[in-house]
Amino acid sequence: MLAIALTLFALTPAAAPQEPPAGAAAGARATLESCLFEDGRWVCRYRMPDIAVVPASGAAAPAPAAAPAPASPATDEAPVLTAAEADLVLRCAEATWLSLCTPTQRRTARALRDRAEADAALRREVGARLATGDCAAAERLALEAGRLGLAARVRPLCPAPATP
User: Fold this and answer.
1) Which pLDDT belongs to residue 73?
2) CA-based angle 86:88:90, to the nearest 5?
3) In sequence order, which ranges of the chain are alpha helices (DSSP H)?
4) CA separation for the pair 20, 49 (Å, rounded)
5) CA–CA gap between residue 114 and residue 94 (Å, rounded)
6) What are 118-131's pLDDT values in tens digits?
7) Would you call 66 helix, strand, or coil by DSSP?
8) Whole-structure pTM value
9) Could you give the CA distance from residue 1 to residue 8 in angstroms, rounded to a whole number?
10) 25-57 as b/e, with b when 16 or more CB fall inside 10 Å?
11) For residues 109-129, b (16+ Cβ closer than 10 Å) or e, as one string?
């Protein structure tokens, strides 16, 4: 049985080496510079070859990107939680003892979650006051909370007071 398998293996043609894709430099490969055992793990450093971007023939040059519009006062507020903080809240706010979160991460995640919930409650309250037509109170609530961007977004939603 082994002899048949070896015979079949010897009779199969060897695969031809693959050609590099068009536009790739021949022999353009990363070269290993060093490998070290650092902090309980292997770290290898490679040198990447220089890459030249060549546009396809007959292709038009890409149009320059338009400059972004300046931020209006209504949109200049940063989100309550950054992406990293939101990830921490998702992973660690309701973590059990089996999770890979440290006690400090759990406390931080719960505090961040509470801050996000307080902001959501503020936005709900401002929305409820807008829904009842109490625009002045909605704007005042946003300003008292220090949310200038939210107050600026509330202002255009309210009708201008009638002047006698």
Assistant:
1) 46
2) 70
3) 2-11, 83-92, 103-131, 135-144, 148-154
4) 14
5) 12
6) 999 999 999 999 98
7) coil
8) 0.48
9) 11
10) eeeeeeeeeeeeeeeeeeeeeeeeeeeeeeeee
11) beebbeebeebeebeeebeeb
